[in-house]
Amino acid sequence: MTIARWRRWLAFAAIGAALTACGSPSESAPAPPPPSTPAAPVVSTAAATPVEGPLPQSRPVRLDVPSIGVSTGPITDLGLDADGALEVPGDAVTTGWYTGGPTPGETGPAVLAAHVDYNHVPGTFNRLKDLRPGDEARVQRADGTTAVFTVYRVERYPKSRFPTDDVYGDTAGPELRMITCGGDFDRSTRNYADNIVAYARLSQAYR
User: Fold this and answer.
1) N or C: which end of the chain has fewer CB within 10 A?
2) Hey, where are the domains in the chain?
3) Tens digit of pLDDT for each residue in 141-187?
4) Shortest CA distance to 184 belongs to which of 22, 67, 18?
5) Which CATH class is domain 3-24+42-206?
6) Which span out of 4-13, 44-53, 87-96 was modeled with the highest average pLDDT?
7) E-only strand ranges, 33-165
């Protein structure tokens, strides 16, 4: 196991616990209905210049996933909390990037996390479970390049059996992981039972 892989493994060993704050509907309030999300803007690549991957390091600044209506504002940095678990965004609409892993477009699994819902507000990744193989996720980067990832797999895992190495282990090329909570909501613990993970590979890049 490489040092980089070991760092990622340590960071995400507690990912199930780290993402338990993905929603907190109370006993007296029903869960919110699915959001009416606007369609993500269509980005024309007709005049874009193709870029060879893997890409150099450059932090993500925006995420668009047209098939599920995701078009984010600025992406925040996520680190580890005092218990060594992954931090989570502080509200329903913010998306975070784990700074201890690769940037999107570098070799390895870059990780973006967002809530499925939070304080009765539908989260950015409320429809992550609806992604299908072939759907695209576009990550705009600070260096002016856009990394386009094609989804090849979407899984739901019980948090008690999260496959850390499968999700965060080394990959041959640039990949993206989008993660949120899912499954049943346990009102006694105020936690979701599962995590939803979308896997995607870099399919093109342009500036």
Assistant:
1) N
2) 3-24+42-206
3) 999 999 999 999 999 999 888 888 888 899 999 999 999 999 888 77
4) 22
5) mainly beta
6) 87-96
7) 60-65, 70-71, 76-78, 96-98, 108-113, 117-118, 121-122, 136-141, 146-158
